[in-house]
Every structure is written in C-alpha cells, then in structure tokens.
Write a structure and sequence with these properties.
six-stranded mixed sheet; globular; single-stranded DNA binding; 15 strands; DNA-binding; 10 helices
Length: 407
C-alpha cells in the first residue's frame, strides 16, 4: 500500500495541508515543533483509529475548531481509494470511503500503517496500559472488526464501574446487587474475545520478534512474549514489582477464558463493591516482554530496550505484510533515528528500506542513513515545501477526488 496524497483541515497546527508522497523512502525534515509528527499522526489514525501521542481525539482538532478532517488517497496496486475521517471534539467521528458515508471502523481495512516513534520505548518500559495499547492497535489493523469489540467492552466496563460506584455509595454488599449479573454477561462475552485475540497475536508475533531483535541487536537474547491475565489471578496493574506471566503461552479457547473470567468476577465481587471498580478483565492484563529470560522492564539495558521496541514494530510490519493482500504496510519512522546509536540506525534503515513506502521524519537530516534518502520534503511552521517535485495543492486534491470517484 502507498499513501499518494494526504490532505488535512484544522488538524493540529494545520489550518490546511497538502502532502504528496512517493513510493520508496520519503523524508520529512524540519525543526522540532514544526508539524512533522502531526503529519505522521494523521496517517496513523486512519490505520489504527487512534493516536500514538494522546488517548482522546480532541487534542488533534485545531484550537478554536469543532472538528478536523484527515483525507488520504491510497494506492493498492492499480486500485486507488479515497478515505476520509472527520474528528469531532464532541460526538462520534464520521468517515467516508470514495465519497460515500462509512463506519469509522472500516478505515483500517484500507489503511495499513506501522509507526516507529520515540514513544515506543514506553511499550517496554512503561505501565501495562502502554503495552495493551500497542497490542490493541495492532489487533485493529489485523482484524478491523475488533475495533467495535474493544469499543463495546470499554462502554460496558464504564457502565459496570458506574454501577459499582453507585452501589458502594449506597452501602450495598455481596449478592444484593443482582443487576450486576447482566453487565457481567456482557463483560465476559466481549472480554473473552479480546483476551483470546491478544493471546493469538502474541503467539504469532513470537518468531518475527525474535528474528527482528537478532537483526537489530546483532545478538540472540531469546525475546519472549507472554500474557499475565487478571482472570487467572494476576493483577499486573497493582503488582508492578512482580512482572511474572501467570499462564502458558498456548492460546486458550473462548469458552475456557469465559469460564475463568466469570469465576474471577465472582471471586472479586466483594472487593469490587468495596472499591467501586472492576478488578478483573483484559483492561487489567499485561504483556510481559523478556530477553535472556528476564523481564525487559527493570532488567534490560537501554540498548536492549530499544531493540525490543524496534523488534515489536518490525514484527508487526512483517505480520501485516504476510497477511494482507494489499501489499506492504506503510512504515513511518517518526524522529526515531535521533534516539538510536549509529549501529542501530543503519540496521533499522537496512531492514525497512525494502518496503513499498517508508516515511521518515527528522529534525537533523544527517541522522538519516543514506539508504533512506530519496524524496525530501521540508516542514517549517506548518508550511510544506518540496523542492524536487513542485506542488499544486488544489490540483492534487482535485485529481485525488476524481480518481477515487472513478473507482
């Protein structure tokens, strides 16, 4: 897949923006704070329905505006698709595909993107929510319908927590809260599907992560991925000092997980009523990452941590590449080379240069290995200039709309 053209309206620091991209490497150069990462963030949103920098959509809407628009012309071989999303400060977002209204969770079917960013270090060193976020965004790209499952689970979880808080305020104890059973059924059904999908993804990533780690680090430190599941009795959110996975690496059935989930809810009901909080489920699980049989968090060196983070992204790209009939995902390397030593810079560049399209952002052009230098665009205070390919934004967008309509 290739992003041929990107258009923005009231997105971050851009009132309007038009960016033409090419196959192969594309380099976006500009000082920090000029808007490079905003362009990358817009493309990533189309693929993951989320940002790698913020947990809600409102910060992506330009100050003083009610909504932002991201529009991109995508090329899948000979086929071109125009995808668009309107991010609203309030209310649900809206999407269009080739000019026709669509559900937002349909966008990842067309946009396949893998982002490398400085924030990736938090995947291995941050709290469990960072790893859950990484996994869930990859799940959405791999199986777009899971976007709705994850959203429904969050909705049910909020409603169940509200009921628990209300019960605590009224002093209700034990089995007296019969209405909780209805929410338990919904939580178990949705949560079990999420847990099984996460386990399957971790199993499928195991070999690609090991291969990518060895290529980046130049050593075989036997990286491993295991889930610590709260439905088995682990509590990764509260036992931060004990990062042991609680279960086997094998993927269990939804029925097995559902049975454990329901038993865990019953066992924790008294504590949940005391605290007004749901204490078990995929929202409290953690992906445990290991190298040399030790947890990366707390034991790995800075270089090893970066190698694991990069390996997770490369493995994600390889997994999407192997499963997608649309070809390679677009790789976006956002200010990542400034964080790496010379050896890792060159290894990462060599490993990614062969993808159909690579977008690299950097404050210092010299940080980017030569193999990724091809098409250079400069960003200055939200102004996009391309000396190699003179641009005519309005014409480019007109062409984009016409070609998408012809599809």
């Amino acid at each position: 897949m290739i992003v041929e053209h990107l258009s923005l309206v009231d997105f971050r620091n851009y009132a309007t923006a038009e960016l033409t991209l090419h196959s192969g490497p594309n380099v976006l150069v500009g000082l920090n704070g000029q808007g490079k990462t905003n362009l990358a963030e817009a493309v990533v949103f189309l693929a993951t329905l989320g940002s790698h920098r913020v947990s809600s959509d409102a910060p992506m809407v330009r100050d003083g505006q009610d909504y932002a628009i991201i529009r991109a012309r995508l090329s899948h071989g000979e086929r071109r698709v125009l995808v668009e999303v309107q991010l609203n400060r309030q209310g649900s977002n809206k999407a269009r595909i080739n000019g026709s209204p669509s559900k937002t969770n349909e966008l990842p079917r067309y946009a396949h993107v893998v982002l490398f960013a400085p924030e990736d270090l938090q995947i291995v060193r941050g709290d469990p929510s960072s790893r859950r976020r990484f996994v869930d965004q990859l799940l959405i790209q791999r199986t777009p319908r899971l976007s709705a499952v994850l959203a429904d689970y969050d909705r049910v979880l909020k409603q169940r927590n509200a009921l628990l808080k209300s019960a605590r305020a009224r002093g209700i104890k034990g089995e007296a809260l019969s209405t909780l059973d209805v929410w338990d059924d919904k939580l178990v059904s949705l949560g079990s599907e999420i847990i099984v999908a996460r386990q399957r993804l971790a199993a499928d990533l195991q070999k690609p992560v090991a291969d990518a780690y060895a290529a980046i680090a130049g050593a075989d430190h036997r990286p491993q991925l295991e889930w610590a599941l709260s439905v088995r009795g682990a509590d990764p959110e509260e036992d931060a000092g004990r990062p042991e996975a609680e279960g086997a690496a094998a993927v269990e059935t939804s029925a097995d997980i559902a049975e454990m989930f329901r038993s865990s809810l019953l066992a924790k009901r008294s504590s949940e009523l005391d605290r007004g909080l749901t204490l078990t489920g995929p929202h409290r699980d953690d992906l445990i990452l290991r190298v040399r049989s030790l947890p990366v968090k707390g034991y790995a060196s800075h270089g090893e941590s970066w190698s694991v983070a990069l390996a997770l992204r490369l493995a994600s790209a390889e997994l999407l590449r192997s499963e997608s009939p649309a070809g390679d995902p677009v790789l976006i390397l956002d200010d990542v080379f400034a964080e790496l030593d010379a050896n890792r810079r060159q290894r990462l560049a060599d490993l990614t240069a062969g993808y159909e399209q690579v977008v690299v952002t950097a404050a210092v052009e010299e940080d980017i290995p030569e193999v990724l230098h091809a098409h250079v665009v400069r960003i200055d205070a939200g102004t996009i200039s391309d000396d190699r390919v003179p641009s005519a934004p309005s014409e480019a967008q007109n062409e984009s709309d016409e070609e998408a309509t012809d599809d």
